[in-house]
Every structure is written in structure tokens, then in C-alpha cells.
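U., I forgot to send this yesterday:
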Amino acid sequence: MLDFETTGLSPAQGARITEVAALRIVEGRVVERFVTLINCNVDIPYEITALTGITQEMVDQAPPVERVLPELLRFIGRDALAAHNASFDDKFLQAESQRQDLQTGYGELVCSLLLSRRLLPGLDSYRLANVAANQGIRFRGDAHRAEADAEVSAELLIVLGQRLRQHYQCRHIDPALLAAIGRMPAAKVPAFLQQQAA
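Result:
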């Protein structure tokens, strides 16, 4: 489970990473973590500090992205990668990798936001805080900090896996199944899951 804090919404508009948390999930448990602030030599906008609490001084003293990114890619390896709104985190990972002429090697890309929309229909909002509250998942740290968001996203992914087992009788849940559900139109998900259970 990956979560980035960034200076803005899009690397195409010059936004860069300020913090990363990557949590390895094995059999429904977080077993390993990679967490650090990152110095990309950019100015931190006031509104980002107000939202995240990450200050210019914090990133100025953080390890440089040139050191962090290769370590992060080694940590991820060929595992599946998950995030809440995965396309956001993936585009930053791809942009920073391209800057350093590095290749990402992860397998499936799993989005807990898309999975939540498919498996928890009818919520007012699928922002992480809303879905977590709906499922009784609490933040143990500050929201909009990478580790706290990654922990809640990991818990949510585990809960969604349990829902697939209990509600849809899916016996074998793997990243390929989760990614397939996320890519599928919502209307087709129930029939697909009935087929998986059978």
C-alpha cells in the first residue's frame, strides 16, 4: 500500500513528492514499512503545509529524492501496488522514476477507491476519510500524512478483502482479482463475483 504527500495535484504541472509511506501487506497484516520525508528541492506551498503539516524546513532536512526513490523501488520490487486513488500515486511514482531514468517493476495496480465504489455502493463520498469512517476504521496519526493515510488505506483494503470472502463467498483473493474488480463497470461486478464464487 503506497501513499505520497505532494506539493500539488499533478507532476505534469511541476508538483513533486514530499513524503512517502509504503506498507507491505501479507495475509491481511502489515509486515514491513518504508516511510520517509523526501527532499525534491522544491518550495512547499503554504496551503500544502496547512493541509499536511509538512513544512519547508522538514523537507529541506529530508533525504534527497535521488536516494529515496531507488530504495522505494527496491522495497516495492515486483509486488502488486495498491493505493487509495491509485492513479494519483502511480503518476507521481512514474514521473519521479522517469526523472531518474529508473524502471518501476511492480505487478498489478490495485485501487482501494475504485474497489470501495464497487463493493460499498451508495456512500456519499469515497474520499479515504469518509470510506474509513463508514467501515469503522480510525486514523492513528494525522490524516494527510503518508504513513497515517497508508495505514488506513491498508486496513480498508483488508476489510474489502474480508467483504469479498463473507458477502460474495470469494475463496481466493489476490491482487489480480482486486485489480480486475476495480477496472470493471460497477453494474458487472455482482455477476462477475458470483462467477468467481462458483
